[in-house]
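Case study 2.
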Amino acid sequence: MTVVLAAALAAASALGGAASASASTAVLPDSGAGTRLRAAVSFADGVETLDVSFTVPAGDGRVGLVLPTPSAAESSVGDGGLFDRLEASAAPRRLVEDDWWGRRSESATTGAATSAGAVPLSEPDERTVRGTNRSKLNAWLADNDLRLSDAQRDTLGEYAERGWSFALVAFDAPAAPAALQPVRLTFETKAPVFPLGLWAGSAAAVRARFYVLGPGRTELREDTRAGRPIDAAQSVVWAGPLAGTPAARDGAYLTVTDVVIDTPADQITDDVRFDAAVADDESIPSVTVYRPIALLDIPLGWLLLVWGGVGLALGIGWISYRTRRR
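Prediction:
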């Protein structure tokens, strides 16, 4: 089974970093606000490939990304065009209708960021360490003049106890807030998984959008209790085949799910995995675009209605006139 996931956290998301990135402060993810995260995952033959991008705050120091994975990951620069293809494919389909009455077309947007102005990762500092190897983690933090908050250390400690590893990526902070060029992580795992537990300490609500590509519709479940849905408000906003869309080469079927977690500390008790849905029911939104039918910028429907009314009045008047003449 091949699965692709992309998660987008809105501007009010609980993911993120400090308001500005400066020496010894910016280690992401964190529990700040103003960050948008997107991730794309493919899973086949026990190997998951995870592409991650998020909004990086402005600053003049180094920024560090710490992501837990079930096994040691190989890291590299990801596919810069993947997220744009997914965003375009999840857009509502356009339905064109002739407009005789001057109706206004609907408007719609996926509300997700593009890759424009991405922070480059041509030569990122990429390392992977086992969660139990605290000395290597501390050495990486010291080398990049970074530090973990107490909450971050507690969260990462829980992953370390489960035998997970940490993918570490460091880079220079941008001069202005911008999306990070995707980081690609490849690692072995029993099932496609996303480390949602990383946001359990967030003080603000978590708003995420998951894009899942595979052979059919998928559902979000808790990782260690796969039969149990995650404790969050969920809304499937797009589900259907990808034939004829920009992401057709990336998979056969796309499921897009919006997730809102109001109180992460109470609701996030596990990571998230992606299971096949019981049925491949399509849920494809559409937006109606009206094609004007007009004469001299006047909708033809109204002109015909007026002309018809005038003709009817003249006809009634003529009949009345003839009747009075008899």
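The longest helix spans residues 300-325.
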